[in-house]
Amino acid sequence: MRITYTIPGHLNNLGVVYEELGNIKEAEERYDRALSIQMKLSAETHYLTGVIYSNLALIYKQTGRYKEALCGFKKSLNILNLYPTSNSHVLPILNREMQELSEIMGRGN
Question: What's the predicted TM-score (pTM) here?
Fold first, then answer.
């Protein structure tokens, strides 16, 4: 991923820091705010929007909200597929996350 110098980008980066520190609630709040602002400023298919969806999906997965996580990963994948040269390393990870969630949900967890 790349560093962005925008308010949504900074909020996303703060979310990453909070997540790394184990403060999932604060991370989710930052990602939600970043997405809200990003959706007002840019097209839904903007690269950063895909990054934020992916980060939110990881939070949802960690907190057992598997349907929300799967939806977030799908949105992220749909957007980031528009930028294949920038995301050749990320796209397989998103596909793997979606497969894992499908398996978890299939077991009824």
Answer: 0.88
